[in-house]
Every structure is written in C-alpha cells, then in structure tokens.
C-alpha cells in the first residue's frame, strides 16, 4: 500500500488526467483549442488544489497512519478525480446537442427536397385551356403524358374546336398518366332553323354581322363583276339546294349572296399578233389564253386558203385588254359566181362554171318556148364557197307534152316506163287508164286510144284499149274509128 501511495503523486495524477481528456476529445472530434483550454485550466487550478498525501514524506510518520487512515486517504483521492473531470469543458454538452440538431435538420431538409423533386417529376401544373384550340390542348397532353378526354357539345358562343371548360382548374397539379376531361365546342347546332332576313335590302356589312351573330357560316358572300350594277349593290341570293326555301332554311344549308364589284376593267397590255393567212385554230387558241372575245366573219378568197385569216379588225402589235373584242375574216376558199343560165343551152350548162356541179333538165311548160330557161336553183350572181352546196339545178323548157299514137306498136308492159320517161319525169302529169277489148291482135297490144298524135295539157289522162287476143282470124288490122270520132281524137279536149 505504501508503494501505491508513493507512486500516486500529483505529477502522475495530472498526466493521467490530461491523457484521458485527450482521448475523450479525440473521440468527440474536439479541436486543439479545447485541449489548450483544458491545459490552461489545469495550470491555473494547480495552486488551489490539494494534492494527495505522500505517505513516504519523511516529515510524516507512516506509523502514525492506521489502516483506517490509509483507507480514508484513498477514498479522498478517488473523490477528487470525478470532480476534476466534470470541470474539463463546460460547453461540451452544448456543442454535442448542437451537432445532433444540425444533423437532424439536414436530414429533414434532404428528405423534403427528395419528396419535392419526386413530386415535381410526377406531377404537372395545369394551364388555362378555356378558349384555346383543342389541337393545342392535345399537344400539351401528349407532351406532359396526361390522358385527355374530350366531351363535345354545341355552342353558339364558342367557336368550333375551342375549349369551353376543364375539370381541373388552372394552376392545380395533376399526376402524369391521370385523365383530364375538357369540354370542347363543335360549333352551333347545324339542324337549327334560321329565320332569314331580306338580304337584298341590307348592306354587305349588315349581312356579315348577321352571319357572324347567327353562326350561319354556310352562307357565302361572293363578289362578282356587273356591267349594270354599281359596286356594293346586292345582285341575288341563292340557296344551293333547290328543295330548301327561306321558310325551312337550316344552319347546315349552303347559300350564296352575290354583290356587285362594278364593271370589270383591264389594262391594255396584250399585244395583238398578225393573223393574216394563219389558221383559224391559231386565233381561237390565242383568244382563249388571253380571254379575248373574237367574232368570226367569212368571205371567199382566191388567194387565202380556206379556214385561214383574210383580215383582222385590230392591227398587228396594237395593245388590247382582257374581254376586249376582235373581229377576223375567215377565208372560205375560192368563190364561185353562179351565172345566168339563160345564156347557155341545156347542153352547155353542165360545163358553164368550173367547180360547180350543174344539173340541166328539160320540163314541160305551157307558156315557155322549147329550149328556153325555165328556172335555176341558185339565183344568178350568187357567190358559192366551200361551205355551200356547189350543186346547181337548171331547168329548160321542153315545150308542151305531145301524145303519140301507141296503137299496134306498144304493149301494155311498156306503158309505165313510157309515160314516166316522156311526161312525168319532165313535169307533166300525164296519166293513162286501160280497158280490155276483144281483138284478134296479140294479147296485151294497144289497139285503141282515146287521143293520140296531139298536144295535151300538163294534167291529162288518156284511155287505152288493150287486146285480149281472144278472136280468131289472124292479125286483124287496127280498127279505124268513124270520121267523127277520128276528128275528135285529133283535137285537144
């Protein structure tokens, strides 16, 4: 015990205390300044402390210490140690609390930031869609991964394909992948009946306002040129469907309201080419391209081929405007002047004019001498061209019809041809009738005539006797009538 007490002096105590403090401060992360502070405190406190009793001190009689005294000294030494430790650093516990508080606050802030970031990544704020195009809303929904549900409804106040309302208000957050419902307009009800005003008495601006107010978008305002109405005047109102009237007109029905733009005027900036001797088709193509009104006149020409241009009303290189008029003369080719065929005989008429086809024919007449011109189908002096019929019919007089004696030398079978060739083809309506008589002449032979060898009128009928050939006696001569009958047969009735 004495050895223990002898080793336990003030110096050893101080070193042990300082070593313990250093270990504690190293564990707690203390700075060198804290250690220095402890050292300073230790130094300042040394004069006031009472060190342990050294039992080996020669001034002290070790025999005077009893076991109880030694125990008391040791107890005093042990009590002095904790008192020295609690006085090492008064701010130690405060700093420890501050440290844990800072760690707690930092952890809370980090968790808040993580949650805020996650919320921001998975949610999106809604803008105001009311009044915007539905296509714009669809684009936004696609970009932000939001399911869009569109409920369509008729509306006169909101234009078609515009948003009327939305289920989630502006500024609120919606989770990505969630469904957003918007109400969109499909325009005014097309089946609604509209009471049409009298557009013809309204100004154009008034009609436009009425159309806008009533959403009557199927009524079109059309401006057109008019040579009779001044600009801005109402021209006409037309409903496209003829079965629809003003009384049963609906918003879906199409109609047109026409207004005058006044008379159309154009700048004279189109140069007229030289069309002389060019084909008519070239003029037609040029006129169509430049919207020129062309009037075509026709004339014969010995120098300009048919369907080519002889002349034009506007000279070459002059300027015209759209809708202007141009007159051109188109060649019909060489012209043929019809002569007076009275100057030609029937035989000469056929070759009177080269290029013309002349049909000369004889006809019976009552008052025109034989061989004289009776008529011609085209008047003398007329000019015929390629577009005309170049055939001319000419009629010459054959005099009066003369009825020859057909008895004994004509049979019944030849009568039709004879009367057509001799009379009917030449304009005389000479007809015949037959009666069959007993005769020894061959059967079918003409044995009698009511008139023969005389001039007859243009309208005349003769009676012919035809032999039955039923009598014997050979070839009997043609019976002769009595002188009275014979005289009558030679005179015209």
Highlighted features:
three-stranded mixed β-sheet; 11 helices; 493 residues; alpha/beta; 23 strands
Describe this structure in words.
The chain is α/β, with parallel strands linked by helices. The chain contains eleven helices and 23 strands. The protein has helices spanning 2-7, 10-28, 32-45, 67-85, 92-122, 134-143, 204-213, 280-290, 346-349, 415-422, 483-490; strands at 123-125, 147-153, 163-166, 173-175, 179-185, 219-224, 234-239, 255-260, 270-271, 293-299, 309-312, 319-320, 325-331, 336-337, 357-363, 373-376, 383-384, 391-397, 402-403, 429-437, 446-449, 454-455, 459-467. The strands form nine sheets. A three-stranded mixed beta sheet has the order 2-5-3, with helices on one face. Helix 2 (10-28) packs antiparallel against helix 3. The protein is elongated and about 215 Å long. The termini are far apart. The relative contact order is 0.05. Mean pLDDT is 80; it is low at 1-6, 29-65 and 481-493.
Please give a quick description of this structure.
This protein has helices at residues 2-7, 10-28, 32-45, 67-85, 92-122, 134-143, 204-213, 280-290, 346-349, 415-422, 483-490, and strands at residues 123-125, 147-153, 163-166, 173-175, 179-185, 219-224, 234-239, 255-260, 270-271, 293-299, 309-312, 319-320, 325-331, 336-337, 357-363, 373-376, 383-384, 391-397, 402-403, 429-437, 446-449, 454-455, 459-467. It is an alpha/beta fold and 493 residues long.
